Amino acid sequence: MVTKMKTAKVAERIRTLPPYLFATIDELKNEVKKSGVDLIDLGIGDPDLPTPIEIVKSMQKATKDSSNHRYPSYQGSFDFRNSCAKYVKKRIGVNLDPDKEVLALIGSKEGIAHLPLAFVDPGDKVLVPDPGYPVYAIATRFYGGEPVMMPLLEENNFLPDLDKIKAKTWNQSKILFLNYPNNPTGALADESFFKLAIEKCAKYGVLLAHDAAYFEVYSGRKRPLSVLEIEGGKDVSIEFFSHSKSYNMTGWRLGFAAGAEYAIQTLGRVKNNVDSGAFTAIQQAGITANEMLAKHRNDLRKVYSNRRKAAIRVLKKAGFDVFDDGATFYVWIKTPEGYTSSEFTMKALEEAHVVVTPGNGFGESGEGYFRLALCATEKRISEAVARLVKLV
Ligand SMILES: *Cc1c(COP(=O)(O)O)cnc(C)c1O
After folding, report:
1. Ligand 1 mean position to 137 CA, how many Å?
2. Is the CB of 250 under 6 A from ligand 1?
3. How many Cα atoms sit within 13 Å of 17 on the Cβ side?
4. Mean pLDDT per 10-residue run, the chain (392 residues)?
5. Does the Cβ of 107 fall within 6 Å of ligand 1?
6. Which domains does the chain have, with CATH numbers?
7. How far, in Å, from the CA of 167 to the mean position of ligand 1?
8. Taking CA atoms, which of 41, 156, 165, 307 is between 20 and 30 Å from 125?
């Protein structure tokens, strides 16, 4: 018998990881829940609505076809890539070669997390929005890269100030991550901003990685833009699209990347050696989703837009400072005078029994804000907001 058991030492990149934001909140949430109170969870951005039945049926049919039971093609089936290219053409009028400029993903997070593996050598820099989706910075670190945080400030409509970044930093950078409609702020980017981003990336040889996970989630006042539809954009960019938020399909794990051939092909080489692609039956369901967009999108917009209005009206009336570009299913709100993000989140949880997300969990520049996810019924959202209003 072994007298003294030894275990493997965990890699430094894991040991030095910050705690996953939602895991920490989950722990506190479960504690409050144990006391039996009626907790309203507006913390995580995960649609409460079901996947449209047409998509579910399409998947059921596809699972019965045994040819779908074998290894998928790592870059995605031609039919899926072709359907994604058609969707892009229809939405923004851009032609894509489905063989060279489209890649199926196992959810867009998968593609985003693998991108630095394709482009970042140890010591390289990656430009990352702050506040932002945590995957950009963490995936960069995993491969030895150095994230350079770009503050998203309200006075700048939550766009990074690209002119402020020094030429030296641009020269050392490989990727510029952007995300509009933006999580967590809900901000949209305009054409002049994307033009500047494309110009900088072309000048300094940086890959523009645009996370368009919320491309279809907007109220309709202003349409989100794709970097691919802006002059020169397709040559320097990779854009990440996701079926998750557009079709209430977060659990299915499906998305696609589109853009510059060199970027798509290089990310494809990574995936070829890491995973074997998305289940073909799920891609089949994704084709159905792409084709039903026009009908489904209107329903989706109506739901979120009603929820947004209900929440914002009450919050504003009570004096909360709310940012509203009408996009994503998030509401980004300043914490009341005298509270840090964490303090207000704790108060909301313990006294109002409402789960919100502290802004600083998305980066230093998120301090002083909290985020609501409109992923509950309008009735529950109204109840949650009424409780928050009573707190202050
Ligand atoms: C939800 C989300 C994603 C991930 O989407 P999946 O396609 O489900 O992996 C990517 N980026 C942002 C900003 C998100 O909020």
Report:
1. 14
2. yes
3. 15
4. 85 86 80 90 94 97 97 95 97 97 98 98 97 97 97 97 98 98 98 98 98 93 94 98 96 98 98 94 98 87 95 96 95 96 94 96 96 97 97 89
5. yes
6. 13-50+295-391 (3.90.1150.10), 53-293 (3.40.640.10)
7. 30
8. 156
Buried b / exposed e over 102-113, threshold 16 CB at 10 Å, is: bbbbbbbbbbbb
The residues near 9 (Cβ < 8 Å, ≥ 6 apart) are none
81 lines ligand 1 (CB under 6 A): no
Residue 41 CA to its chain's centroid (Å): 19
135 Cβ closer than 6 Å to some ligand 1 atom = no
Q: Counting beta carbons within 10 angstroms of the beta carbon of residue 163, is it exposed (0 to 12), middle (13 to 18) or buried (19 or more)?
A: exposed
**Gap from CA of 44 to ligand 1 centroid (Å):** 12
Tell how far CA 194 is from the center of its chain.
18
Which pTM was predicted?
0.96
Residue nearest to atom 1 of ligand 1 (CA): 213
Cα four-point dihedral sign 44, 298, 59, 224: negative
Q: Which 3-state string (H, E, C) describes 223-270?
A: CCCCHHHCCCHHHHEEEEEEHHHHCCCCCCCCEEEEECHHHHHHHHHH
Q: Which atom of ligand 1 is nearest to the CA of 182?
A: 13
Distance 304 CA to ligand 1 centre (A): 17
| Atom number of ligand 1 nearest to Cα 242 | 7
